[in-house]
Amino acid sequence: MDSEKKTVSLVLGSGGARGLAHIGVIQVLEERGYDIRSISGSSMGALIGGIYAAGKLDVYTEWVCALDRMNVLRLLDVSFSGAAIFKGERIINTLRELIGEQNIEDLPVTFTAVATDLEESKEIWLSNGPLCEAIRASIAFPTVFSAVPYNGRTLVDGGLLNPIPIAPTLRDMTDITIAVSLSGNAKIIPEEIPTVKEIPEDRNKYHQKIIDFIDNLHRKDNGKKDDAGFFDIISKSLDVMQSTIANFKLAAYMPDILIEIPKDVCSIYEFERASELIEIGRREATTRLNAFEQSSA
Description:
- With 297 residues, the chain is of the alpha/beta class.
- Helix content is 39%, strand content 19%.
- The chain is built from nine helices and ten strands.
- The chain has helices at 21-31, 44-53, 57-65, 69-74, 89-99, 131-138, 205-218, 230-252, 274-296; strands at 7-12, 35-42, 84-86, 110-117, 122-126, 143-145, 148-150, 153-157, 176-184, 257-262.
- Strands 1, 2, 4, 5, 7, 8, 9 and 10 form an eight-stranded mixed sheet that branches.
């Protein structure tokens, strides 16, 4: 069967900023004629998948590729509740401005965002209701973003229990299931991939102080390069946890095609590297689809 006739259930995994590689994967699938009929995503996978299902991926891609680190920092609204560092409302309000208010059941593509019920310790599949609220719940990583009250539940990041949510697609009447894991083995990425944008030198002193503060959370400022900061510990801990869980999920449900994004391409918070990460997604998708199509010929 030609790729032009293949309908796809697409599973997009969690992994912070590495999830921007999902954009590149989707671009390659569309260019090759694959018909994405269903999407299931956790955390950043839910965000990218939901935006695509809403038909706004091009708008989001243009916006996110223009971000530098200062733009990213402006999206972080500090929470004074003590329950988390950031509220997360500014991010979701920006998303609403980009894609508008839509309900999941009205989208042209079947979509499921996976979140975690903090009280019941179980995963929750969000496949109806307001799209932005479902995305907000799925990306609410504990200690970083505030938990989300949702229909009587307290919801947090879906990647805590299911970083690569294949199960919601098992009943889909599609030709193939393609899963994108953001926990792939470390890999050397070719140097010609675009490098991260430098921060303009004309930033004022106030902006620089904010950047320095965040950098100090990333790494302690004591001159030791191997001394991890707060966000580095969170990033590495999340990677260890999600890699382990992802392996168990893939052992239970193996997709027809597995595209793996190397876990060392960036940390979970480097969203200013969008162009680079999208290109990595394109390359990994192209390599894996070439192998699949040759084996199916």
